[in-house]
């Protein structure tokens, strides 16, 4: 009987091992041939294609193929998800300031476990938390998870909801308020806490009302001076109050004629205005200015007839306002509406008055050229001053000629 040499036995057992491994391989494995370190032998290497791992044959370690690799992009991986704080305390019934997380990476979706308190919402695309919690609860931990197709990251938040067991507080931005008669207004208060009822003392101006949330709205019907009102907001835990001021002015402005007459020494513009505001014919509480022109302190324009196209560029301290309708002191007779050039186009709709004349110091085309007579800027009872015939609607309504300054005439007063 032939005796196998040691070398032949090694070859025999090695080959047997290869055959057994071959039949044990699955159909998904690929067979490669590779030289071994022993020049007398070749060894088969079976590499699993699914994992790119090298197999070990019969105790012989085989190095993995270095040219078989796999890779995946992590450019869109989410690496950061942080909220400004780790814990929050909210009040039931009070809207929270939205919680915006700091994120790095592209978020595909967001979810939270357990569900957020009733009334709070997690945005499924941005992980922003917002809303108004409806019920109280003790501190509760929540896990917020942001994910996409390649990664996910989580963070934890603690949220406590306290009962709204305190009186509400309110405030109004814009007080003191000045409303225009006939216009519609809505004023929303800023509030903290639940408001169950609201009241105003004294009663708001006619046409205005306040609802149970302290919202003030309506159309004021009558003019009135500035009046203080106490607004009280209440709930089952108490009440708080705030004071606001409301004045109602007319939707038009008045032009009236003084009952008193004055010579040309009016005490300058200041004296003329004082006389208007002290006159018994003044129709309301507003401030008035005298429609008297001076070379430097009060004029609608200087160089252009009817001040056409100037849009007030030459006006100095003038008394008429663009777009405002002016009426007599009776509140119904319309004199006219000032245009963008700050004059009332002639002819007037109705005359300023049914009788009398007044000082003006304005030319018949609304200019004050600097040489228009004005009793030394209304500081002297000598010389001449331009006057007007208030019964007219044409240019005589602003200049019907000159008059000696010692003569007494009335003033045209314009609401500001």
Describe this structure in words.
The chain is built from three helices and 28 strands. With 416 residues, it is mainly β. Strands 21, 22, 23, 24, 25, 26, 27 and 28 form an eight-stranded mixed beta sheet that branches. A hairpin with a 5-residue loop joins strand 17 and strand 18 (216-218). It starts with 5 loop residues before the first helix and ends with a strand.
Labels describing this entry:
eight-stranded mixed beta sheet; 416 residues; mainly beta; disordered N terminus; four-stranded mixed beta sheet; 3 helices
Count of beta strands: 28
Instruction: State the major sheet.
Output: 8 strands, mixed
Count of helix runs: 3
Average pLDDT level: 85
Class of secondary structure makeup:
mainly beta
Intertermini distance: 136 Å
Q: Over all CA atoms, what is the radius of gyration?
A: 46 Å
- pLDDT < 50 stretches: 1-7, 17-73
